[in-house]
Design brief:
This protein has a domain at 121-295 and 365-430: Rossmann fold (3-Layer(aba) Sandwich). The N and C termini lie far apart (65 Å). The strands form two sheets. The chain has a seven-stranded mixed β-sheet, with helices on both faces. The protein has a two-stranded antiparallel ribbon with strand order 6-7. It has helices at residues 2-8, 14-18, 22-49, 52-77, 85-89, 97-101, 121-135, 149-162, 176-184, 229-235, 254-264, 285-288, 306-315, 324-327, 354-367, 380-383, 403-408; strands at 166-170, 189-194, 213-217, 244-248, 268-271, 340-343, 348-351, 368-373, 426-430. It has 17 helices and nine strands. 40% of the residues lie in helices and 10% in strands. With 435 residues, it is of the alpha/beta class.
Length: 435
């Protein structure tokens, strides 16, 4: 084995080096001299001490290669992240965090024709650079329990890209999402539905109320499913429903909402909290689409399984990672949240069978023209986030280790707390099922 390792270090044959050009010939002498000194050193060591010292040297070299890249990355980004041995294995081609999670990968809903979003990663990075200084001017600096930076960017980008004639939001809270929509489309009308009017929050602190917005809020509140949308569209002069964007941040059953939106004739929808299987306070599209026939679908509730071991380990790393107790119900139901279809801010929990859950997935996929989940803005070593499990999310726009890009985009200017609200926001384009 030692001989094989040494043979890898031997220089190329003279003829092959000469073919590379005259510049490499000057370097060849240095390489050869270095190799001669190494050979002499090796012979001296083996003569005096046998093969013990060479083995120790190669062991130290191996350890240096194993830990040095991680140390450099951590030093450069000046952050601390949980130790995960699988990320070290990735350096040697054995797969990383995602592959270690195996069949527990990212669930997604299949579109009817396999269509994807019109935008690319390049478009998203360009938009990200534009959005950072906009976000810094937000009126609500501390939006606890509301959208963080990731989803604010996603909503802004989608609205700016689609350029809708009218924007509807269900769930306004203090008005941050209204403000984001306004930054994307300065002159477009907004219809905002919320049980409590954002102006009520102005009495206690920062909030945003938009002058070009129709509020169905407070005493005038009407639930999205009860609005006469035909009358509302006429009132706002909208005759093309494909130019309406609907944003849901109301923590309601997303199967219910997608049916209501389809009935009203809307095509472009964004769901802010697209919770992962086993988490959340409502039945989400991601939960609906977590099935046996895709990567990430169909889970084992066997306590001695590989899945149980992996989930237990990851639970210690990520706040939203779900272990077996959080995933599985008493009858080993794993779909939804322990076999329940949650709704109304978790106030109603309807137990459903797997066959019902499977039929829901087939129905949703029969409506989908596009399904696109917003990736995290940046990797956890850059943002210090501990909320989402990276193995259950799309790859971030700015990968771990790319601190230069993270800095160039202006993301280092933001407080790390704004990155800890990622819950797989999703954009969908829907139409009637094919006959």
């Amino acid at each position: 084995m030692l001989e094989r390792m040494l043979s890898v270090r031997r220089p190329a044959h003279e003829s092959s080096v000469a073919e590379e050009g005259s510049e490499s010939e000057g370097d060849e002498s240095k390489t050869r001299k270095s190799y001669t000194n190494l050979s002499l050193l090796f012979r001296n060591l083996t003569t005096r001490f046998g093969y013990i010292w060479p083995c120790l040297l190669f062991g130290l070299l191996f350890l240096s290669l194993f830990f040095l890249p991680s140390f450099i990355t951590q030093s450069r980004t000046l952050v601390c992240t949980p130790f995960d041995p699988t990320s070290r294995l990735g350096l040697f081609g054995f797969g990383g965090m995602d592959s270690e999670f195996g069949s527990l990968g990212v669930p997604w809903c299949r579109s009817k024709q396999g269509k994807t979003s019109e935008w690319t990663s390049k478009d998203l990075l360009k938009g990200l650079e534009e959005f950072v200084p906009i976000y810094e001017t937000r009126p609500i600096k501390n939006n606890m329990y509301g959208m963080g930076f990731d989803h604010s960017f996603g909503l802004w980008f989608i609205a700016k890209w689609l350029k809708p004639q009218l924007m509807i939001e269900s769930g306004a809270f203090k008005g941050h999402s209204t403000w984001v929509l306004r930054q994307a489309m300065p002159d477009t009308r907004i219809v905002s539905l919320s049980p409590r009017h954002p102006e009520k929050y102005l009495r206690k602190g920062p909030a945003y109320v938009d002058r070009n917005c129709t509020y169905l809020a407070g005493k005038d509140f009407i639930d999205f499913g009860s609005v006469n949308w035909k009358t509302m569209m006429r009132k706002h002069g909208v005759d093309d429903l494909t130019r309406v964007l609907v944003f849901f941040d109301d923590h309601q059953n997303e199967l219910k909402r997608i049916k209501q939106a389809l009935k009203a004739g809307f095509r472009h929808l964004v769901f802010e909290d697209n919770y992962d299987t086993g988490t959340g306070d409502h039945y989400s599209l991601r939960q609906i689409c977590d099935q046996f026939y895709i990567r990430g679908g169909g889970h084992s509730c066997f306590k001695d399984s590989d899945e149980a071991r992996i989930r237990s380990k990851r639970k210690g790393f990520w706040d939203k990672a779900v272990d077996l107790d959080g995933l599985c119900g008493p009858g080993e139901e794993w779909w939804g949240v322990r076999g329940y279809m949650r709704d109304d801010f978790n106030h109603t929990n309807k137990a459903i069978s797997y066959s019902e859950h499977f039929q829901n997935s087939r129905y949703v996929e029969s409506l989908l023209d596009v399904y696109w989940e917003l990736p995290p803005v940046a990797g956890p070593s850059l943002t210090h986030q501990t909320r989402y499990d990276p193995a259950r999310a799309p790859n971030p726009l700015v990968e771990d280790g790319k601190y230069g890009l993270f800095q160039r985009l202006g993301l280092t200017r933001l407080d790390k707390s704004v990155f800890n609200g990622y819950t797989q926001m999703v954009y969908v384009q829907i139409s009637e099922p094919d006959s």
